[in-house]
Design goal:
The strands form 4 sheets. This protein has a 3-stranded antiparallel β-sheet. The chain is an alpha+beta fold. It is 27% helix and 28% strand. Strand 3 and strand 4 form a beta hairpin. The chain is globular.
Length: 128
């Protein structure tokens, strides 16, 4: 799935295009992208101490309600920011939420199924 990036005159994976064009403190930043051996390599922000939400819940056999509520609001805010910037993530799940352990922040990642918002209903399934 590729999207045209007019300012560069090149084709980029849609994932990189969407992640680059959405900014929010609770979205993992795309720092750079380059081609190596005909494959795209993404350089993403990575908190020093981090794990995905699934790992965070599994490691402690649960999560305190106040912490879960804080992470939920952070991801909800990031998701709303995506929509306000014309992007739908379409793959919200614990594995796509990175927890910055030191800052106690949740950050949304993996825009592989993202798309632009549209007024008409979606008519086809994307994903597994």
């Amino acid at each position: 799935n590729y999207s045209f990036v007019p300012d560069k005159g090149r084709q980029f994976p849609a994932e990189a295009y969407y992640q680059r064009h959405v900014t929010h403190p609770n979205i993992i930043g795309l720092l750079d992208i380059f081609v190596h051996a005909e494959k795209f390599v993404f350089v993403l922000e990575r908190p020093e101490v981090s794990l995905d939400l699934f790992e965070a819940i599994d490691a402690r056999d649960g999560m305190p309600e106040d912490e879960g509520r804080r992470f939920f609001w952070q991801i909800l805010d990031a998701t709303i920011a995506c929509e306000e910037q014309g992007i739908l993530h379409r793959d919200l799940k614990p594995e796509n939420i990175i927890i910055d352990v030191k800052a106690r922040e949740a950050k949304l990642t993996d825009f592989g199924l993202a798309c632009e918002t549209q007024d008409d209903p979606f008519s086809h399934f994307v994903g597994e």
